[in-house]
Design goal:
By secondary structure, this protein is of the alpha/beta class. The chain has 2 domains: 52 residues, Spermidine Synthase, Chain: A, domain 2; 224 residues, Rossmann fold (3-Layer(aba) Sandwich). 34% of the residues lie in helices and 29% in strands. It is built from 11 helices and 12 strands. It has a 7-stranded mixed β-sheet with strand order 8-7-6-9-10-12-11, sandwiched between helices. Strands 1-2-3-4-5 form a 5-stranded antiparallel β-sheet. Helix 9 packs across helix 10.
Length: 288
């Protein structure tokens, strides 16, 4: 889809579930298809700039902060002493920006399969990634995340899987052997969080993810947040750890850690963190 400057066309993302996301696009800023996936960045009429991979909206400038803050801050604050953080995917830098806000994080390693996502995000989505890639603690590895985790001997306190949906290059990040590799790469009290889709319309995907995670971790569930351009209802973020205490961290402790971190956020608060684990009945039923 190409939108000449000044003319509004429609970006339609088919979710394969009987509904779609439609955005009014006023300009195509960049479009290419030579790498691992088709990549496009648009200027939308309402949501600012839009990153789309293989025709699927990955983020918009207007609401990405909800997704990014909940993926990054929930596990880091729950852990309480995270020094080594791994981000799988997330080449747009949005989650990386949130991670490096935490002063106690010594290193944030981002493994992205498509270097063009990073290059174009830095150039065309500066309000999304900020100066995250210039942070001395940020380490970028261009590689398949599943292959990287299968072979690394490093250990992490938090692993954030900021993946696409389970199609194309992202499919490998939803398989059982990937979660086995994640479990091996975590410190004993480590936490894994994942993008797990919209339960109301992608319930089978969430259910299968939970089943696979339970084979490797003792504490498995999800938490939720509503991101407007991820249509179909609240979005789920998978949670897995062998430290049962992390998810049960009381609100007072969360507030103390957040205050000490000195991080500024637009969506995340310790109260939202605690409430996000209160699941609607239909989601609890999916989790079994």
């Amino acid at each position: 889809m190409t939108a000449p400057k000044g003319r509004i066309v429609q970006f339609d993302e088919s979710l394969g579930t009987g509904i779609s996301l439609g955005l009014d696009i006023v300009e195509t800023l960049h479009e290419e298809g030579d790498g691992p996936q088709h990549l496009a960045i648009y200027e939308s009429a309402t949501f600012g700039r839009v990153l789309a991979l293989d025709g699927i909206c990955q983020l918009t400038e207007r609401d990405e902060f909800i997704y990014s803050e909940m993926l990054a801050h929930v596990p880091i604050v729950a852990h309480g002493a995270a020094r080594e953080v791994l981000i799988v995917g997330g080449g747009d830098g949005a989650v990386l920006e949130e991670v490096v806000k935490h002063r106690d994080v010594a290193r944030a390693t981002l493994v992205e399969i498509d270097k063009r996502v990073i290059e174009l995000s830095q150039r065309l989505l500066p309000d999304v990634c900020g100066a995250a890639f210039d942070d001395d603690r940020a380490e970028v590895v261009i590689a398949d995340g599943a292959v990287y985790l299968a072979n690394t001997d490093r250990r992490f306190d938090v692993i954030v899987v900021d993946s696409t949906d389970p199609i194309g290059p992202g499919k490998a990040l939803f398989r059982s052997n990937f979660y086995v590799a994640c479990a091996r790469a975590l410190q004993p009290n480590g936490i894994l969080v994942t993008q797990s889709g919209v339960p109301l319309i992608q319930g089978d995907d969430l259910k299968s993810t939970m089943t696979r995670l339970r084979r490797r971790f003792t504490d498995v569930t999800c938490y939720m947040a509503t991101v407007p351009t991820y249509v179909g209802g609240p979005m789920a973020f998978g949670w897995a750890s062998d430290d049962r205490a992390a998810r049960a961290t009381d609100l007072g402790t969360l507030e103390g850690r957040w205050l000490a971190a000195g991080v500024t956020a637009r969506y995340y608060t310790p109260a939202v963190h605690a409430a996000a684990f209160a699941l609607p009945g239909y989601v609890a039923a999916l989790l079994g």
